[in-house]
Design goal:
Residues 3-131 form the MPN domain. This protein is α/β, with parallel strands linked by helices. It has a single domain (3-121), classed as Cytidine Deaminase, domain 2. The chain is 24% helix and 38% strand. The longest helix is centred in the first third of the chain and has 14 residues, at 7-20. It is globular, with a radius of gyration of 14 Å.
Length: 131
């Protein structure tokens, strides 16, 4: 079954990747089950933001606190590949926890979704839902 992604989320991810180019954008995917309904953009605190990303830990802590208080759940993460492809890089594969999180990767004006697992990343089909 495809993941459902709000059209607002798609627009926001593409705009954020474009506005932060040539640095990688990054943040948190929020929603419920396999429905991504919003995002929490984060500062990329990696010392080399043009080729790597590291989500500001406070943004992640805040997202989990909001989820515990009845807000949307943390479903996964997103980041851009400003000069790359919309698929997991070697660094992504080496550092992602095999916890079933959804990963969105933005590159060249397109978004792909992936699920991290024991066998690495698995491509996820998705449908764009109305606002």
């Amino acid at each position: 079954m495809p993941v459902e992604v709000s059209s607002d989320v798609v627009e926001r991810l593409l705009a954020e990747a474009a506005s932060l180019y040539p640095a990688e954008c990054c943040g948190i995917l929020l929603g419920d089950g396999d429905r991504v309904t919003s995002v929490a953009p984060a500062a990329n605190i990696h010392p080399e933001p043009a080729s790597h990303f590291e989500i500001d830990p406070q943004t992640l802590v805040d997202a989990h606190r909001q989820a515990r208080s009845g807000g949307p759940h943390v479903l996964g993460y997103y980041h851009s590949h400003p000069n790359g492809l919309a698929r997991p890089s070697a660094t992504d594969r080496a550092t992602a926890a095999p916890d079933g999180s959804i990963w969105a990767i933005i590159a060249a004006g397109r978004i792909t979704l992936w699920r991290s697992g024991d066998a690495g990343f698995e491509a996820l089909p998705y449908e764009i839902a109305p606002r």
